[in-house]
Amino acid sequence: MGIETAPRAMSIEARTIRKLKVRILPFVWLLYIVAFLDRINIGFAALTMNKELAITSQQFGFVAGIFFVSYSICEIPSNLLLHKIGARIWLARILLTWGILATLTGFVHSVHQLYAMRFLLGLAEGGYFPGILLYLTYWFRQREQAQAVALFITGIPVANILGAPLSGLILDHMHAFGLGSWRWLLILEGIPAVVCGVLTYFLLPSGPAEAKFLTPDEKTWIAEQIRMEDEDKRRAHPVSAIRALVHGRVWHLAAIAFTVGTSVYTAIFWMPQIVRAAATGYSNTLIGLLVAIPNVAGLALMIVISRSSDRRLERRWHTAVPAIVGGIACLSFGASHSLFLSIALLSLLAVGIYGASGPFWTLPSQFLSGFSAAAGIAVVSSIANLGGFAGPYAVGLIGQKTGSLNGGMTLAGIALLVLASLVLLLPKRPRTLAGEFARPSTHDS
Length: 445
Prior knowledge:
With 445 residues, the protein is mostly helical. It has a single domain (2-211, 228-426), classed as MFS general substrate transporter like domains (Growth Hormone, Chain: A, Up-down Bundle). It has helices spanning 2-23, 25-52, 57-85, 87-104, 111-125, 128-137, 142-153, 155-173, 181-203, 216-236, 241-244, 248-278, 284-312, 316-331, 339-360, 370-402, 406-424. Helix 12 (248-278) packs antiparallel against helix 17 and helix 16 (370-402) runs antiparallel to helix 17 (406-424).
């Protein structure tokens, strides 16, 4: 009987994980691409918007960053609500409200109105990223999480790869009904979020129990796997939702996340203007294509690094090494005097920020589960988003004082090197039952 059980368990494991990867990951990946288009298109809009609204570099840094202040305020309550009322309803609400506000941003007429709309957009979208991270822990074990998280986060480079050329085309060619092209950029790229909000309500299951694509045996298997991992985490690290808010390791991860947010959003929001400074006289369409190149490099290496991290169940060095590479590239940017070298260094920066992201965002779920995971992941993500305010704003301030964006790149480089140092100060993760639940399966060993 034991001999028959092992092959059956392996068959259920392979079949279930394959279904989850096919049915869950592509949908949340699509949602994150839509989310990131609305979050970052302000960087491309700035190529023409700043002149029309007389926005200075410092003001644009504030425009980019104010979104993350309100976003951070909402992350903890949003994640607790998602865990309580279900991902399907809560994520649909987030998508609908931010899509409407993102579209309305195209009708502002002053920098102060833009500040207000970006702040409201952060309130509407607040909790989305940590909510998806929490949602993935309902479906995937530790051994699949780095790949699952990394595939989800590939939405960032993909949004840039697709969005950068599209944004450039809209800026160059869309001038209908007397509206500026940057207004059409914000309006057109806000509409998909509304559509996806409706689709989320009808198509996204809140957890395995609602998954119509799984058989009863598969639902039971994955639920038991997740339950066993949660019990193991509670035994090894008994952390309640309240304790997660003040837990030392949570705040260590939050400090790392601050540097992640600082470097990621500095690169994303300012890259179009950095490339334009190096590519004087180029059209917005061509600038969009050039911005896509570093994101292609980052996407490719991100997938490779996350697969290696899961295969070895190792997170620290898989986070630190890409961050060091990206940090060195940023610090070298001041010596760049050609477009080719600038794109090469930006590509290494993209490898650093994207490569480190997949392994890093699996770290909170190594010792948190349930409501403690909802609270702890939200704390870490909220501090990351404060870095999303600090980085872009500091770059704008430095740029206005110096007349160059090189100082901002130096700031991003320092943040990445601090990131690597803080990650390496984390304790090595002991190999507990979290990596050993499906003992009949040996193909991961």
